[in-house]
## 1
Amino acid sequence: MTPKEYLEQVRKIDRKITLLEEKYEEIHSSLYGRAIVYTSDGAKKSSHDNSMENALICVLEIEEKMKNEIKNLIKCRIDVEKSIHTLIDDPLVQEIFERKYLLFQTWEQISLKLNYSVVHLHRLHSANISAFSSVSSNLSELQSVS
């Protein structure tokens, strides 16, 4: 994994979190169309399970899995953010990296916010991107082992 791929994974993480949240909402909203069926008078045990109860159990299991996955994705995002602050000393360069890789701003947007030319931002970015090579190579080694 290159340093740039390491930093750009945050965009993928955010998209994945959004997708998981949308899937959960879809599953959750589908439950509201169901009704609880009370066909038994209690004297005899029904051989059919309550479909609403089964659906709720299924949604709760899915919700738990999704929460765990979102939690792991958020940890990855936080790791990228921490590495920006750990590996780069200059506050201006930190802000450039945060705006580019955490806020997903374009070079033109960053240029307007910071009052620097796009060329100068690219120069600062290029000079500091190599700081992430150790983190991204360690990550690549871990991914190849898994």
## 2
Amino acid sequence: MRPLAIAVALIGAVRVAADPLDEWTWRGPTPRESFKGDNYNGVVYEGGTLVIVGGSAGKILLRKDGDASWHTVDSGTQHPLYAVTTANHSFYAVGARGTVITSRGGESWVARDSTLAVPLFAITYTDSVFAVLGEGGAVVTSGRSGLWSAKASGTLESLYGVAYFSQMFVGVGANGVVLKSDNASLWVPESSGTNSSLYAVATDRKNFVVVGENGLVLTSPDAVKWTARDSGTTRSLMGVTYGNGLFVAVGAYGVILTSPDGVTWKTRPSGVTHLLRAVAFARHSFWAVGWNGSILESGATGK
């Protein structure tokens, strides 16, 4: 065989490794095609345990590293749950009618008094303060005492997302509202430059990245000056997270986007048309959850 022919044959034999973010596997407890599963709104991973919270009757699914199936646990509430986070090796979930519940390991949950009776949509935690945001500009906080108290946000717009870094909380919500606070008690409005609803916010500890209606993406290093970015989609983005060096955003019609910096975005094939509501990084892969029983796991992105 001629040298040129040999080289061509060798090149043709080389296989390009698949990008793990292009490989999403259905992990839902119901068949992907049925569209009859529960609606899931939040997902978080801590200490070998993945927790997913749902939008009907306080649904909580739990899966530990090595488990082959999901376990449904008693949340102690019948109210829909909208978000979940971790702090100090415990899980915290929030939901309708001011619901706040906590669990040390994910199996047993205890109700806390949030002092409010409105839907709570987002929760985050920093060194010593929880901040929970919700309908009609609701904000409640809790310190190490475990007691919750309502705070004035200065807005009546519903607040859907919250994140923290560099001594700053950032909350986002309906009609382009952006709020910032250095203590979760006093909130200051900032101009986002848009009237579109903002649904989620994440940080890589350098910048905040906000996602929202019609594929909207905004970035800011200080929560004051916001820059619109081209996401490459017009589908609404409902959730965003940062892990293993990547931002991952999810949304309507199964859209999944990734970005190394929040500026340039790449569309990934999810294999579904379900509404995806939230995403989290867990150990070596990303997990996206949404409506009609959708739970997706990406390929392994590294160790």
## 3
Amino acid sequence: MCDQLLEKIKPEQIIENRKVYSGEYAELCLYETYQKAELISYGHLDNPVLLFMLSGKKVIHEDEKEVEHTFEFCPGESLVMAPHELVQIDFPDACPETPTRCLTLEIGHQLIRDTLGQLQEELNNELSSELYLDESLQCESVADSRINDAILRVCSYYTQPMDHAARKLLIQHTLQELILLMMQTKARHILMHKKGGAMPRLQLVVDYIMEHIQDDLSVEELAARACMSKPTFHRYFKKVLGVSPVDFVNKKRMQIARQLLLSEQKAVSDVCYAVGYNSTSHFIRSFKNYYGCTPKQYQKSHF
């Protein structure tokens, strides 16, 4: 596959040593460098980026906690860069006879959010407090042959002739496979990272919800804590988290109620008030709509 891909990249085909394939879910770039160079800046993109070396060698410089960290990036190796990260790259061996060749795959945040949301649903896992860490993240090396294989398959789908609908589905599913594979590596925190001016405010709201789940939480109050109007807050909350504020609060209440019923074997009425319901009958109806059985039936089925 590497040889086939390299045969498609010729110097005269690439403007400024780059060939770009854009799609709905990602952008693939193929690079060739024909001369030695030092400290070439790369990065500051809006989405996580996978880098994969095809031939030659790069030397990556990054600042890690204000200390420069340098390492070699060689053929067959992958690297994941966080959004807005900036690194500097040396090309010590590049020449016209043996150019340095690599590819980058920038994966859109929407597909990452959707995939992580599906994963969260399947695992019934609490990821909300981890999904939006606002901290400085550096690039991570990924040593996994499955990831490299998926990267090359994405390249094949972009570059080989095929039906448009088939291409779109194959790329989408392979990108989701890549995301799930990377979630099992140390690059996991990069995928769950999102920078942006409003994100810290939204994280404060999520934290507030979790700390006050037993209280009466109104959308007006949550919007005020995010320093947004109610319509703007509702629209932004749903865009980022995939559900409305009311549905998010209800979902968290049901998940916490289930945990209390199982881990502490509390009475249904106690759980009802612990998760913010004022009416036991309302709580029972909501729980049954969510899990398909009453709280007592759920508790009995596990003990």
## 4
Amino acid sequence: MSALPGRLNFQGRSVLLKYHRLLSGSHNHPPNSRAALLSVLEGGAEVIEFDVGMRSDGGFALLHDPRLDRETTGVGLLEQADAAMLRSICLRGSDERVVLLEDAVSILACARRPAKVQVDLKELLPLGPEQGMALIRAMEPLRANRHLRVVVGCLADWNLRLLRRLDPSLYVGVDPACYLDVAVDGSYDLPTEILANLPHRLNAYGYLDDHPLGYRRLLPVEAYLRDRLEVLIQAVPQAVEFYLRKEFVLRALSDGLNPIAFIQEQRPGATVDVWTLNASDPGGRDLLLQLLAAGAGQITTDTAVQLAAFIPQ
């Protein structure tokens, strides 16, 4: 198999490509599938990401949604399905079985190439200590593999803080979209159940933000954004990564603040990831160049192969 692109070289700077839901853009595999995982590993991807949600038996499965219906041949809630039930159904449009976290871990534990693995925790309800420890224990073989760097990402900063209390050595990354975002019709790659928990109040500055600072427009928009981001990036003081939706980044740039540069100033050494940019997006190449120029350290994409072709190396 030809090597998959791991990063982009832009103006002397190296920017990582993250294979969102294990998709590369060149293989016809379902997202979060075993075949997709094997393809990106064998292809040499440097950063891979897969979603995990909690099962009824306390384990986790590689699924994006809290419901089974959209992604699988099953119906109902993931939290009501156990391992046996999940092994009996397929990912929609294929004959591939749903991947359990322990299945993915057994594959990744044998990896012999350096890679970063982002485990994207989809649970927004507060985890209990037993549930948090179940996830930490499930990931132990990954973290024991010296070739892998494992980062748990989540929208729920409260769950990341719990995981860090349970294991202070765990790398975590946070997404502030539960507090600050922009309205873009139909662009969210999130199910209705999760969207219902995000801010829906369009404030005086034109952002989705329920904080009282946005009730009236008393500050320049750039000052408002600085204030909100300064607070939000402290929500998980130990975070090593921050995930920003591309639409938010572009809107903030147009309002006079580069949120990527701001986070890098406040948290030197942290990676700022912009999600999700695909080659098929309208103006995809120009958007990529704009985000790279803004300083993104990592780009989340379903189409890494096609994005890499936009930037001659």
